[in-house]
Design goal:
The complex is a heterodimer of chains A (112) and B (112). With 112 residues, chain A is an all-beta fold. Chain A contains no helices and eleven strands. Chain A is globular, with a radius of gyration of 13 Å. The N and C termini of chain A lie far apart (30 Å). In chain B, strands 2, 4, 5, 9, 10 and 11 form a six-stranded mixed beta sheet that branches. In chain B, strands 1-3-8-7-6 form a five-stranded antiparallel beta sheet, with no helix packed on it. Chain B has no helices and eleven strands. In chain B, β7 and β8 form a beta hairpin. The N and C termini of chain B lie far apart (40 Å). With 112 residues, chain B is an all-beta fold. The chains are: A mainly beta (112), B mainly beta (112). At the A-B interface, β5 and β10 of A face β5, β9 and β10 of B.
Chain lengths: 112, 112
């Protein structure tokens, strides 16, 4: 998985609780991304980062926040989890916007 | 409207045959095009990238790009049962800030 790890790999949480997912890379790539993948919707971008402390929204950013304090780490936080956020979350990295993205192994999140 | 369209399939081919997967996109200004393979329960894996018109070959895989007609295709020669997966087309879309937009994927089944 191109030096990308995600933690946790599986999580079950209750509605209303905060959840933080972590993505860690060892490739020193500038760009990092968070996607969610749901049946019928494919991969959709939540947020992305183009450098330390530089982040921007994707198409499904409502209810999510991100932070990047180090090049290698990109955190995704669900402030108050809802059942609609049950999904598989993938982190990806790339050298630049136009270049290939490489994906981490994913986190399966279930909100009950 | 950013769109990357793929036939959802399933596309069934016999072992040893050529599998042809197609993708069309809406943004004429797109510059980068990628094919990912995703096995069930796994993360997307990059198999081909193509940036200019024409064909690009890598082993049993050939990517074909036609910017004038706004389509990109993937040919898999000598298909094997291990090629059975979902294939995702992804396009960097200028109208979406050059971010990657994914198609919903085509399910490929190779029958032995």
């Amino acid at each position: 998985d191109a030096g990308i790890t995600q933690s946790p790999r599986h999580k079950v949480t209750e509605t209303g609780t905060p959840v933080t997912l972590r993505c860690h890379q060892t490739e020193n790539h500038r760009y990092m991304y968070w996607y969610r993948q749901d049946p019928g919707h494919g991969l959709r971008l939540i947020h992305y980062s183009y450098g330390v402390k530089d982040t921007d929204k994707g198409e499904v950013s409502d209810g999510y926040s991100v932070s990047r304090s180090k090049t290698e780490d990109f955190l995704l936080t669900l402030e108050s989890a809802t059942s609609s956020q049950t999904s598989v979350y993938f982190c990806a990295i790339s050298r630049d916007l136009y270049y290939e993205q490489y994906f981490g192994p994913g986190t399966r999140l279930t909100v009950t | 409207q950013k769109e990357v369209e793929q036939n959802s399939g399933p596309l069934s081919v016999p072992e040893g045959a050529i599998a042809s997967l197609n993708c069309t996109y809406s943004d004429r200004g797109s510059q980068s095009f990628f094919w990912y393979r995703q096995y069930s329960g796994k993360s997307p894996e990059l198999i081909m990238s193509i940036y200019s018109n024409g064909d690009k070959e890598d082993g049993r895989f050939t990517a074909q790009l036609n910017k004038a007609s706004q389509y990109v295709s993937l040919l898999i020669r000598d298909s094997q049962p291990s090629d059975s997966a979902t294939y995702l087309c992804a396009v960097n879309m200028k109208e979406y800030g050059n971010k990657l937009v994914f198609g919903a994927g085509t399910i490929l089944r190779v029958k032995s």
